[in-house]
Amino acid sequence: MAANKSILFLPGDGIGPEAMTQVRRVIEWMGRERSVSFDLDEDLVGGAAIDAHGVPLADATMEKALNVDAVLLGAVGGPKWDDLPFEKKPERGLLRLRKEMELYANLRPALCFEALVSASSLKPEIVSGLDIMIVRELTGGVYFGEPRGIEELPDGQRRGINTQVYTTNEIRRVGDVAFDLARKRSGHVTSSEKANVMESGVLWRQEITKLHQEKHSDIKLDHMYADNAGMQLVRNPKQFDVIVTDNLFGDMLSDVAAMLTGSLGMLPSASLGDVDANGRRKALYEPVHGSAPDIAGQDKANPLATLLSYAMALRYTFDLAEEADLVEQAVQNVLDSGIRTPDIMAEGTKAVSTSAMGDAVLAELDRLNG
Ligand SMILES: NC(=O)c1ccc[n+]([C@@H]2O[C@H](COP(=O)([O-])OP(=O)(O)OC[C@H]3O[C@@H](n4cnc5c(N)ncnc54)[C@H](O)[C@@H]3O)[C@@H](O)[C@H]2O)c1
Ligand SMILES: CC(C)[C@H](C(=O)O)[C@@H](O)C(=O)O
Ligand SMILES: [Mg+2]
Does the model's ipTM exceed the 0.85 cut? Predict the structure, then answer.
Protein backbone atom coordinates (compact mmCIF):
# COMPACT_ATOMS: atom_id res chain seq x y z
CA MET A 1 0.00 0.00 0.00
CA ALA A 2 1.27 3.48 -0.88
CA ALA A 3 2.47 5.52 2.11
CA ASN A 4 1.07 8.87 0.99
CA LYS A 5 -2.46 9.67 -0.02
CA SER A 6 -2.66 8.10 -3.47
CA ILE A 7 -5.04 8.69 -6.35
CA LEU A 8 -5.16 6.89 -9.68
CA PHE A 9 -6.44 9.11 -12.49
CA LEU A 10 -8.32 7.28 -15.26
CA PRO A 11 -9.59 10.02 -17.61
CA GLY A 12 -10.95 7.58 -20.23
CA ASP A 13 -12.75 8.79 -23.35
CA GLY A 14 -14.72 11.67 -24.85
CA ILE A 15 -15.31 14.46 -22.35
CA GLY A 16 -13.69 12.38 -19.57
CA PRO A 17 -10.18 13.81 -20.13
CA GLU A 18 -11.56 17.35 -20.61
CA ALA A 19 -13.29 17.31 -17.22
CA MET A 20 -10.39 15.56 -15.50
CA THR A 21 -7.99 18.29 -16.66
CA GLN A 22 -9.99 20.77 -14.58
CA VAL A 23 -9.91 18.43 -11.57
CA ARG A 24 -6.15 18.10 -11.89
CA ARG A 25 -5.87 21.90 -11.73
CA VAL A 26 -7.88 21.93 -8.49
CA ILE A 27 -5.73 19.12 -7.03
CA GLU A 28 -2.60 21.14 -7.87
CA TRP A 29 -4.19 24.19 -6.21
CA MET A 30 -4.86 22.11 -3.06
CA GLY A 31 -1.21 21.09 -2.93
CA ARG A 32 -0.01 24.68 -3.38
CA GLU A 33 -2.49 26.56 -1.20
CA ARG A 34 -3.64 24.01 1.41
CA SER A 35 -0.62 21.68 1.61
CA VAL A 36 -2.89 18.76 0.76
CA SER A 37 -0.95 16.68 -1.70
CA PHE A 38 -1.45 13.31 -3.31
CA ASP A 39 0.66 10.77 -5.13
CA LEU A 40 -1.02 11.04 -8.51
CA ASP A 41 -0.70 8.33 -11.10
CA GLU A 42 -2.52 8.30 -14.43
CA ASP A 43 -3.47 5.43 -16.71
CA LEU A 44 -5.81 4.37 -19.49
CA VAL A 45 -9.30 2.91 -19.36
CA GLY A 46 -12.06 2.29 -21.92
CA GLY A 47 -11.53 3.14 -25.57
CA ALA A 48 -8.20 4.80 -24.83
CA ALA A 49 -6.93 1.53 -23.32
CA ILE A 50 -8.32 -0.47 -26.25
CA ASP A 51 -6.41 1.74 -28.69
CA ALA A 52 -3.17 1.36 -26.72
CA HIS A 53 -3.36 -2.22 -25.43
CA GLY A 54 -6.26 -3.94 -27.22
CA VAL A 55 -8.21 -4.34 -23.95
CA PRO A 56 -10.50 -1.88 -22.08
CA LEU A 57 -8.49 -2.29 -18.88
CA ALA A 58 -4.94 -3.68 -18.75
CA ASP A 59 -4.10 -6.06 -15.89
CA ALA A 60 -1.38 -3.66 -14.73
CA THR A 61 -3.97 -0.86 -14.46
CA MET A 62 -6.30 -3.14 -12.51
CA GLU A 63 -3.43 -3.92 -10.14
CA LYS A 64 -2.77 -0.20 -9.61
CA ALA A 65 -6.46 0.45 -8.92
CA LEU A 66 -6.44 -2.24 -6.24
CA ASN A 67 -3.50 -0.58 -4.49
CA VAL A 68 -4.36 3.12 -4.36
CA ASP A 69 -6.55 4.90 -1.83
CA ALA A 70 -8.93 6.21 -4.49
CA VAL A 71 -9.53 5.95 -8.22
CA LEU A 72 -10.90 8.99 -10.03
CA LEU A 73 -12.49 8.12 -13.36
CA GLY A 74 -13.67 10.41 -16.19
CA ALA A 75 -15.91 8.46 -18.56
CA VAL A 76 -15.66 5.58 -21.00
CA GLY A 77 -17.15 4.70 -24.37
CA GLY A 78 -17.94 6.22 -27.72
CA PRO A 79 -19.06 5.39 -31.25
CA LYS A 80 -15.53 4.43 -32.34
CA TRP A 81 -15.73 1.28 -30.19
CA ASP A 82 -19.47 0.51 -30.39
CA ASP A 83 -19.10 -2.39 -32.84
CA LEU A 84 -16.47 -4.28 -30.87
CA PRO A 85 -17.35 -7.68 -29.42
CA PHE A 86 -19.10 -7.29 -26.10
CA GLU A 87 -16.22 -8.35 -23.83
CA LYS A 88 -13.90 -5.84 -25.51
CA LYS A 89 -16.12 -2.79 -25.28
CA PRO A 90 -14.89 0.24 -23.28
CA GLU A 91 -17.70 -0.19 -20.72
CA ARG A 92 -16.29 -3.61 -19.74
CA GLY A 93 -13.23 -1.81 -18.35
CA LEU A 94 -15.37 0.12 -15.92
CA LEU A 95 -17.42 -2.96 -14.97
CA ARG A 96 -14.20 -4.90 -14.29
CA LEU A 97 -12.98 -2.13 -11.97
CA ARG A 98 -16.25 -2.14 -10.04
CA LYS A 99 -16.37 -5.94 -9.77
CA GLU A 100 -12.73 -6.65 -8.89
CA MET A 101 -12.55 -3.77 -6.41
CA GLU A 102 -15.86 -5.08 -4.97
CA LEU A 103 -17.41 -1.61 -5.03
CA TYR A 104 -20.89 -2.75 -4.13
CA ALA A 105 -22.31 0.58 -2.89
CA ASN A 106 -22.67 3.38 -5.40
CA LEU A 107 -23.67 6.68 -3.79
CA ARG A 108 -25.30 9.06 -6.25
CA PRO A 109 -26.38 12.27 -4.52
CA ALA A 110 -28.81 14.50 -6.42
CA LEU A 111 -28.62 17.97 -5.03
CA CYS A 112 -30.25 20.94 -6.68
CA PHE A 113 -28.10 24.05 -6.31
CA GLU A 114 -30.40 27.03 -5.76
CA ALA A 115 -28.86 28.88 -8.71
CA LEU A 116 -29.84 26.01 -11.01
CA VAL A 117 -33.48 25.72 -10.00
CA SER A 118 -34.50 27.19 -13.34
CA ALA A 119 -32.14 24.88 -15.31
CA SER A 120 -34.25 21.84 -14.39
CA SER A 121 -36.96 20.78 -16.79
CA LEU A 122 -39.33 20.68 -13.80
CA LYS A 123 -41.06 23.57 -12.06
CA PRO A 124 -38.84 25.48 -9.58
CA GLU A 125 -41.04 24.59 -6.57
CA ILE A 126 -40.65 20.87 -7.34
CA VAL A 127 -36.84 20.91 -7.27
CA SER A 128 -35.87 23.86 -5.06
CA GLY A 129 -34.02 22.56 -1.98
CA LEU A 130 -33.82 19.01 -3.36
CA ASP A 131 -31.26 16.80 -1.62
CA ILE A 132 -31.64 13.07 -2.18
CA MET A 133 -29.18 10.19 -2.16
CA ILE A 134 -29.55 7.20 -4.44
CA VAL A 135 -27.66 4.15 -3.21
CA ARG A 136 -27.26 1.82 -6.17
CA GLU A 137 -26.09 -1.77 -5.72
CA LEU A 138 -23.15 -1.97 -8.12
CA THR A 139 -21.59 -5.43 -8.33
CA GLY A 140 -24.57 -7.74 -8.69
CA GLY A 141 -27.93 -8.07 -10.39
CA VAL A 142 -28.52 -8.32 -14.11
CA TYR A 143 -25.19 -6.62 -14.91
CA PHE A 144 -23.25 -9.67 -13.75
CA GLY A 145 -25.75 -12.56 -13.45
CA GLU A 146 -25.19 -15.90 -15.20
CA PRO A 147 -26.22 -17.25 -17.64
CA ARG A 148 -25.89 -14.44 -20.13
CA GLY A 149 -25.08 -14.18 -23.80
CA ILE A 150 -26.65 -14.44 -27.24
CA GLU A 151 -27.39 -17.94 -28.52
CA GLU A 152 -28.62 -19.47 -31.76
CA LEU A 153 -31.90 -21.38 -31.62
CA PRO A 154 -32.58 -24.48 -33.74
CA ASP A 155 -35.20 -22.57 -35.74
CA GLY A 156 -32.63 -19.94 -36.78
CA GLN A 157 -33.72 -17.25 -34.33
CA ARG A 158 -31.30 -15.81 -31.80
CA ARG A 159 -31.95 -15.41 -28.09
CA GLY A 160 -30.37 -12.76 -25.83
CA ILE A 161 -30.10 -13.71 -22.18
CA ASN A 162 -29.30 -11.79 -19.01
CA THR A 163 -30.06 -13.01 -15.52
CA GLN A 164 -31.06 -10.98 -12.50
CA VAL A 165 -29.50 -12.56 -9.40
CA TYR A 166 -29.18 -11.36 -5.82
CA THR A 167 -28.07 -13.13 -2.66
CA THR A 168 -29.01 -12.29 0.93
CA ASN A 169 -25.57 -10.85 1.68
CA GLU A 170 -25.47 -8.69 -1.44
CA ILE A 171 -28.78 -7.12 -0.44
CA ARG A 172 -27.94 -6.71 3.24
CA ARG A 173 -24.55 -5.04 2.79
CA VAL A 174 -25.89 -2.34 0.47
CA GLY A 175 -28.91 -1.99 2.74
CA ASP A 176 -26.59 -1.30 5.69
CA VAL A 177 -24.91 1.48 3.72
CA ALA A 178 -28.26 3.08 2.91
CA PHE A 179 -29.57 2.93 6.50
CA ASP A 180 -26.27 4.29 7.89
CA LEU A 181 -26.39 7.19 5.43
CA ALA A 182 -30.02 7.95 6.27
CA ARG A 183 -29.09 8.13 9.96
CA LYS A 184 -26.80 11.08 9.15
CA ARG A 185 -29.44 12.67 6.91
CA SER A 186 -33.24 12.82 7.37
CA GLY A 187 -33.68 9.26 8.66
CA HIS A 188 -35.78 7.90 5.81
CA VAL A 189 -35.01 5.05 3.38
CA THR A 190 -37.10 4.08 0.38
CA SER A 191 -36.22 0.65 -0.96
CA SER A 192 -37.11 0.11 -4.59
CA GLU A 193 -37.52 -3.10 -6.65
CA LYS A 194 -40.23 -4.90 -8.56
CA ALA A 195 -41.37 -7.46 -5.98
CA ASN A 196 -44.66 -7.63 -7.89
CA VAL A 197 -43.05 -9.43 -10.85
CA MET A 198 -39.54 -10.59 -9.90
CA GLU A 199 -38.45 -13.18 -7.33
CA SER A 200 -35.21 -11.27 -6.85
CA GLY A 201 -37.39 -8.29 -5.96
CA VAL A 202 -39.33 -10.36 -3.41
CA LEU A 203 -36.05 -11.42 -1.79
CA TRP A 204 -34.79 -7.82 -1.87
CA ARG A 205 -37.90 -6.59 -0.05
CA GLN A 206 -37.80 -9.41 2.53
CA GLU A 207 -34.11 -8.93 3.32
CA ILE A 208 -34.32 -5.13 3.58
CA THR A 209 -37.35 -5.50 5.89
CA LYS A 210 -35.49 -8.02 8.07
CA LEU A 211 -32.35 -5.88 8.19
CA HIS A 212 -34.45 -2.90 9.19
CA GLN A 213 -36.08 -4.81 12.07
CA GLU A 214 -32.77 -6.24 13.27
CA LYS A 215 -30.48 -3.21 13.11
CA HIS A 216 -32.11 -0.05 11.83
CA SER A 217 -35.57 0.31 13.32
CA ASP A 218 -34.77 3.94 14.22
CA ILE A 219 -34.95 4.74 10.48
CA LYS A 220 -38.24 5.14 8.63
CA LEU A 221 -38.43 2.52 5.87
CA ASP A 222 -40.83 2.23 3.00
CA HIS A 223 -40.92 0.19 -0.18
CA MET A 224 -41.79 1.36 -3.65
CA TYR A 225 -41.94 -0.45 -6.99
CA ALA A 226 -39.21 0.89 -9.27
CA ASP A 227 -41.56 2.06 -12.03
CA ASN A 228 -43.52 4.08 -9.48
CA ALA A 229 -40.23 5.42 -8.06
CA GLY A 230 -39.37 6.81 -11.50
CA MET A 231 -42.75 8.52 -11.66
CA GLN A 232 -42.55 9.81 -8.07
CA LEU A 233 -39.06 11.23 -8.70
CA VAL A 234 -40.53 13.44 -11.37
CA ARG A 235 -43.83 14.15 -9.57
CA ASN A 236 -42.57 14.96 -6.08
CA PRO A 237 -38.85 14.23 -5.61
CA LYS A 238 -38.63 15.91 -2.21
CA GLN A 239 -40.60 13.02 -0.62
CA PHE A 240 -37.32 11.01 -0.81
CA ASP A 241 -34.26 11.07 1.42
CA VAL A 242 -32.26 7.90 0.63
CA ILE A 243 -33.34 5.51 -2.13
CA VAL A 244 -31.72 2.05 -2.10
CA THR A 245 -32.11 -0.05 -5.19
CA ASP A 246 -30.49 -2.63 -7.46
CA ASN A 247 -27.88 -2.14 -10.16
CA LEU A 248 -30.14 -1.62 -13.18
CA PHE A 249 -32.94 0.34 -11.49
CA GLY A 250 -30.26 2.48 -9.81
CA ASP A 251 -28.67 3.26 -13.17
CA MET A 252 -31.99 4.46 -14.56
CA LEU A 253 -33.29 6.27 -11.49
CA SER A 254 -30.03 8.21 -11.11
CA ASP A 255 -30.22 9.51 -14.69
CA VAL A 256 -33.80 10.61 -13.94
CA ALA A 257 -32.61 12.31 -10.75
CA ALA A 258 -29.88 14.06 -12.73
CA MET A 259 -32.42 16.09 -14.64
CA LEU A 260 -33.97 17.29 -11.38
CA THR A 261 -30.66 18.99 -10.64
CA GLY A 262 -30.51 20.71 -14.02
CA SER A 263 -28.07 18.51 -15.92
CA LEU A 264 -26.34 15.15 -16.03
CA GLY A 265 -23.21 17.30 -15.97
CA MET A 266 -23.86 18.08 -12.27
CA LEU A 267 -24.13 14.60 -10.72
CA PRO A 268 -21.11 13.07 -8.94
CA SER A 269 -20.81 9.58 -7.51
CA ALA A 270 -18.79 7.50 -5.08
CA SER A 271 -18.47 3.73 -5.38
CA LEU A 272 -17.39 2.10 -2.13
CA GLY A 273 -16.38 -1.35 -0.95
CA ASP A 274 -16.04 -2.85 2.52
CA VAL A 275 -13.67 -1.47 5.12
CA ASP A 276 -10.65 -3.84 5.23
CA ALA A 277 -8.49 -4.92 8.18
CA ASN A 278 -6.36 -1.75 7.79
CA GLY A 279 -9.44 0.46 8.04
CA ARG A 280 -9.16 1.19 4.34
CA ARG A 281 -12.15 1.16 2.03
CA LYS A 282 -11.62 0.64 -1.70
CA ALA A 283 -13.20 3.51 -3.59
CA LEU A 284 -13.76 4.84 -7.07
CA TYR A 285 -15.19 8.28 -7.80
CA GLU A 286 -16.76 9.20 -11.13
CA PRO A 287 -19.47 11.43 -12.55
CA VAL A 288 -22.80 9.77 -13.33
CA HIS A 289 -22.63 10.94 -16.96
CA GLY A 290 -20.84 9.25 -19.83
CA SER A 291 -18.35 10.32 -22.48
CA ALA A 292 -20.89 12.59 -24.26
CA PRO A 293 -19.62 11.95 -27.81
CA ASP A 294 -21.96 14.65 -29.15
CA ILE A 295 -19.95 17.42 -27.45
CA ALA A 296 -16.54 15.77 -26.96
CA GLY A 297 -13.52 17.78 -28.09
CA GLN A 298 -15.43 21.07 -28.15
CA ASP A 299 -14.49 22.46 -24.71
CA LYS A 300 -18.23 22.56 -23.91
CA ALA A 301 -18.59 19.86 -21.26
CA ASN A 302 -19.62 20.70 -17.74
CA PRO A 303 -16.70 19.59 -15.51
CA LEU A 304 -18.61 20.06 -12.24
CA ALA A 305 -19.88 16.46 -11.85
CA THR A 306 -16.29 15.24 -12.06
CA LEU A 307 -15.05 17.98 -9.74
CA LEU A 308 -17.80 17.19 -7.23
CA SER A 309 -16.78 13.52 -7.46
CA TYR A 310 -13.29 14.60 -6.36
CA ALA A 311 -14.93 16.47 -3.46
CA MET A 312 -16.64 13.20 -2.50
CA ALA A 313 -13.20 11.52 -2.52
CA LEU A 314 -11.91 14.22 -0.15
CA ARG A 315 -14.84 13.55 2.16
CA TYR A 316 -15.24 9.77 2.05
CA THR A 317 -11.71 8.46 1.44
CA PHE A 318 -9.39 11.13 2.78
CA ASP A 319 -11.47 12.46 5.66
CA LEU A 320 -10.82 16.04 4.49
CA ALA A 321 -14.26 17.48 5.12
CA GLU A 322 -13.00 21.06 5.22
CA GLU A 323 -11.39 20.76 1.78
CA ALA A 324 -14.50 19.00 0.42
CA ASP A 325 -16.67 21.84 1.77
CA LEU A 326 -14.34 24.35 0.16
CA VAL A 327 -14.66 22.78 -3.29
CA GLU A 328 -18.45 22.48 -2.96
CA GLN A 329 -18.74 26.06 -1.74
CA ALA A 330 -16.61 27.29 -4.66
CA VAL A 331 -18.91 25.45 -7.10
CA GLN A 332 -21.99 26.94 -5.46
CA ASN A 333 -20.58 30.49 -5.55
CA VAL A 334 -19.53 30.16 -9.19
CA LEU A 335 -23.06 29.04 -10.09
CA ASP A 336 -24.54 31.85 -7.98
CA SER A 337 -22.46 34.33 -9.96
CA GLY A 338 -24.22 33.19 -13.15
CA ILE A 339 -21.32 31.35 -14.79
CA ARG A 340 -22.66 28.39 -16.77
CA THR A 341 -21.54 25.74 -19.22
CA PRO A 342 -24.10 25.34 -22.05
CA ASP A 343 -25.93 22.38 -20.45
CA ILE A 344 -27.05 24.51 -17.47
CA MET A 345 -27.41 27.81 -19.28
CA ALA A 346 -30.56 29.75 -18.45
CA GLU A 347 -32.03 32.79 -20.13
CA GLY A 348 -29.92 35.84 -19.45
CA THR A 349 -26.75 33.88 -18.69
CA LYS A 350 -23.78 33.45 -21.00
CA ALA A 351 -22.25 30.04 -21.64
CA VAL A 352 -18.59 29.53 -20.85
CA SER A 353 -16.23 26.76 -21.90
CA THR A 354 -15.07 23.78 -19.81
CA SER A 355 -11.73 25.45 -19.15
CA ALA A 356 -13.34 28.81 -18.30
CA MET A 357 -15.53 27.00 -15.74
CA GLY A 358 -12.29 25.56 -14.31
CA ASP A 359 -10.77 29.09 -14.22
CA ALA A 360 -13.84 30.38 -12.37
CA VAL A 361 -13.70 27.61 -9.74
CA LEU A 362 -9.98 28.23 -9.17
CA ALA A 363 -10.53 31.98 -8.81
CA GLU A 364 -13.30 31.33 -6.30
CA LEU A 365 -11.12 28.87 -4.35
CA ASP A 366 -8.45 31.59 -4.14
CA ARG A 367 -11.02 34.07 -2.88
CA LEU A 368 -12.52 31.69 -0.28
CA ASN A 369 -9.08 30.64 0.92
CA GLY A 370 -8.21 34.29 1.58
N1 LIG B 1 -19.55 6.04 -16.28
C2 LIG B 1 -19.34 6.08 -17.59
O3 LIG B 1 -18.20 6.10 -18.04
C4 LIG B 1 -20.51 6.14 -18.51
C5 LIG B 1 -21.78 6.52 -18.07
C6 LIG B 1 -22.82 6.62 -19.00
C7 LIG B 1 -22.59 6.34 -20.33
N8 LIG B 1 -21.33 5.96 -20.71
C9 LIG B 1 -20.98 5.75 -22.14
O10 LIG B 1 -20.88 7.04 -22.75
C11 LIG B 1 -21.24 6.93 -24.13
C12 LIG B 1 -22.34 7.95 -24.44
O13 LIG B 1 -23.53 7.60 -23.74
P14 LIG B 1 -24.84 8.48 -23.66
O15 LIG B 1 -24.80 9.48 -24.77
O16 LIG B 1 -25.97 7.58 -23.52
O17 LIG B 1 -24.73 9.24 -22.25
P18 LIG B 1 -23.90 10.54 -21.83
O19 LIG B 1 -24.05 10.68 -20.37
O20 LIG B 1 -22.51 10.45 -22.36
O21 LIG B 1 -24.64 11.75 -22.57
C22 LIG B 1 -26.04 11.96 -22.50
C23 LIG B 1 -26.36 13.44 -22.84
O24 LIG B 1 -25.96 14.27 -21.75
C25 LIG B 1 -25.01 15.24 -22.16
N26 LIG B 1 -23.97 15.33 -21.15
C27 LIG B 1 -23.45 14.30 -20.42
N28 LIG B 1 -22.49 14.74 -19.61
C29 LIG B 1 -22.39 16.06 -19.81
C30 LIG B 1 -21.55 17.09 -19.26
N31 LIG B 1 -20.63 16.82 -18.32
N32 LIG B 1 -21.70 18.35 -19.71
C33 LIG B 1 -22.63 18.64 -20.63
N34 LIG B 1 -23.46 17.73 -21.19
C35 LIG B 1 -23.34 16.46 -20.78
C36 LIG B 1 -24.43 14.70 -23.47
O37 LIG B 1 -23.94 15.76 -24.28
C38 LIG B 1 -25.59 13.95 -24.07
O39 LIG B 1 -26.42 14.82 -24.79
C40 LIG B 1 -21.68 5.47 -24.34
O41 LIG B 1 -20.59 4.78 -24.88
C42 LIG B 1 -22.00 4.99 -22.93
O43 LIG B 1 -21.85 3.60 -22.76
C44 LIG B 1 -20.29 5.88 -19.85
C1 LIG C 1 -21.19 2.89 -18.83
C2 LIG C 1 -22.09 1.99 -18.06
C3 LIG C 1 -21.40 0.67 -17.84
C4 LIG C 1 -22.55 2.58 -16.73
C5 LIG C 1 -23.59 1.65 -16.09
O6 LIG C 1 -24.54 1.20 -16.76
O7 LIG C 1 -23.42 1.38 -14.91
C8 LIG C 1 -23.13 3.98 -16.73
O9 LIG C 1 -24.35 4.09 -17.37
C10 LIG C 1 -23.21 4.51 -15.31
O11 LIG C 1 -24.27 5.01 -14.94
O12 LIG C 1 -22.21 4.44 -14.60
MG1 LIG D 1 -25.79 5.25 -16.25
Answer: yes
Distance CA 14, CA 63 (A): 24
Domains belonging to the chain, first-starting first, are 1-107+269-370 (3.40.718.10), 131-260 (3.40.718.10)
Per-residue pLDDT tens over the stretch 60-91: 999 999 999 999 999 999 999 999 998 999 99
Q: Please classify residue 185 by burial: count the beta carbons closer than 10 Å to its beta carbon, then call 0-12 exposed, 13-18 middle and 19+ buried.
A: middle
Q: Whose CA is nearest to atom 23 of ligand 1?
A: 292
CA of 264 to the centre of ligand 3 (A): 10
For residue 99, indicate whether it is catalytic: no
Q: Is the shortest distance between the CB of 286 and ligand 1 below 6 Å?
A: yes
What Cα–Cα distance (Å) separates residue 302 from each residue in 11, 12, 172, 357?
A: 15, 16, 36, 8
Assess whether the C-beta atom of 78 lies below 6 angstroms from ligand 1. Answer: yes
**250 C-alpha vs ligand 2 centroid, how far in Å?**
10
- Report pTM: 0.96
